[in-house]
Design brief:
Elements lengths: L1 H6 L12 E5 L9 H4 L7 E5 L2 E8 L24 E7 L3 E2 L5 E2 L2 E8 L16 E6 L12 H12 L6 E6 L10 E4 L3 E8 L2 E8 L5
Antiparallel strand pairs: 1-2, 2-3, 3-4, 4-7, 5-6, 7-8, 8-9, 9-12, 10-11, 11-12
C-alpha cells in the first residue's frame, strides 16, 4: 500500500534511470523578503539530479501556529491553509506530474488541499500539497491565502490552467531518514526532512503512470 500511495502523489517528473541525492545547502537567498526569510531554516538542502544541482529547498524552521480543521484525508490537519512551508530555488527546468514545465527561479511553497467537490476524485489518497508561487511577488510570510487565490498565484508559475504542485505529508517516523532523498516504488524520489520537530516527506521527483 505504501508504494501505491507514493506512486500517485503529484510532483516533478523523472525519467527512468535518473538518480537523485541530497547534499547540504546554504542560507536562504538574500533576495527573499525579510518576512519570508525570517521563517525559514538557516541551512537548506540541495537536491542533486545525476550529479548536478536540480534545486535547493528551505523548509520552515517551525510549523506554523496550529489551526485545526475538520477536513478529511489530510496528514497535517493543524496547518492553516495557505501557510508558507518552504521556499525552493530551481536550477533546472522542472516538469510536474501533468507535464507542466516551469522555469528555473525562486518560488515560495504554500500548504494547500484541494476541495472535495469530485473534480480531483482519485488524484491521491490524501489531499496535502504545496503550491508554488513567484517569490518576487509572494512576500508576506504570515499570509494564508484561500484556495482560489493560491491557485491563481500558482498558475503564474505553470503558465497553464492548473497550479504547480508538489506533494507533501507528515511522515511515519519508522520510514523517516533525516535529510535524505529516497526512491520509493518505480518512479518517486522523496526528500525527508524535519520541519521543527515534525518529520515530513516531499516528493521532489516522480512520474504518474496514466
Amino acid at each position: 500500500m505504501r508504494k501505491f500511495f507514493l506512486s500517485i502523489l503529484l510532483a516533478a517528473s523523472v525519467l527512468l534511470g535518473e538518480e537523485y541525492k541530497a547534499e547540504a545547502g546554504g542560507a536562504p537567498p538574500a533576495e527573499l523578503s525579510d518576512s519570508v526569510k525570517g521563517l525559514l531554516e538557516k541551512q537548506g538542502v540541495k537536491v542533486m539530479k545525476d550529479g548536478k544541482p536540480l534545486s535547493e529547498i528551505w523548509f520552515r524552521a517551525e510549523m506554523p501556529a496550529p489551526k485545526p480543521t475538520a477536513e478529511q484525508n489530510i496528514t497535517m490537519p493543524n496547518v492553516p491553509h495557505g501557510s508558507l512551508l518552504g521556499v525552493i530555488k530551481v536550477e533546472q527546468t522542472y516538469s510536474d506530474r501533468r507535464g507542466q514545465m516551469f522555469k528555473p527561479g525562486l518560488y515560495t511553497m504554500r500548504y494547500s488541499y484541494y476541495p472535495e467537490n469530485g473534480d480531483h476524485q482519485g488524484a491521491a489518497p490524501q489531499r496535502d500539497f504545496l503550491l508554488l508561487s513567484m517569490a518576487a511577488t509572494d512576500t508576506d510570510g504570515a499570509a494564508t491565502p484561500v484556495f482560489k487565490e493560491l491557485v491563481e498565484q500558482s498558475k503564474k508559475v505553470s503558465n497553464t490552467l492548473h497550479p504547480c504542485v508538489f506533494s507533501i505529508r507528515k511522515e511515519d517516523p519508522k520510514y523517516f531518514k533525516e535529510g535524505s532523498v529516497e526512491k520509493e516504488g518505480d518512479h518517486d524520489w522523496i526528500l525527508m526532512r524535519k520541519m521543527g520537530t515534525v518529520p515530513v516527506s516531499l516528493v521532489v521527483a516522480g512520474k504518474v503512470e496514466a
